Amino acid sequence: MADDALLGRASRRAGERYPHVFVAGALAAYGRAHGLDEAAVAALLGVPPDRLWRLGLCRLPRNPAELARVAAHAGADPLALATVLGDPANDRA
Fold this sequence. Notes:
Elements: H1 2-17, H2 23-34, H3 38-45, H4 52-56, H5 64-74, H6 78-85, H7 88-91
């Protein structure tokens, strides 16, 4: 459990420092835009809140195939993740 807490802090820090590189930055921006806390974002994505770091520490996907791999890696719902991150083919080509 302590490792999850430390990795959660690392994920949040990565998102703050490099919001256009790590998924954590996009998750935080989505949460702020929609008035959601981390637990609500995690629920939307179908991952336990204490494991959201696994998703946050991934690099932002650049195409739909990468988005599918990121979702599978973190155990997130791929359609929900696509909604939160937007279309990687258009946004981060």
